[in-house]
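Listing S7. Sequence submitted for prediction.
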Amino acid sequence: MPNIPSAAKRARQNIRLRAANQAVTSTIRNTRRKLFEAFDAGDKAVCEKLYREYTSVLDRAVKKGVILRNQAARRKSRSAHRLAAMA
């Protein structure tokens, strides 16, 4: 338990921020899972729609500082390659 008031406040903030980051991370994982299930199913129209949603979720996560810009770019690139391979 922190002895200094500022450290106690920081601990409270960390709990709140961690919960917010977990929510964003969960959204990323769920959207990715839906996209990859669509890849396995082979429906290109659905994949394109889900790919746009996935890139949007990643961009919002970068904007909030949950993931790094290069990580989002890498994930979008890999998904785009997989989408292109369906053609």
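Caption to Listing S7: primary sequence and predicted structure tokens for the chain studied. The helical segments are 5-41, 44-64, 69-85. The mean pLDDT is 96.
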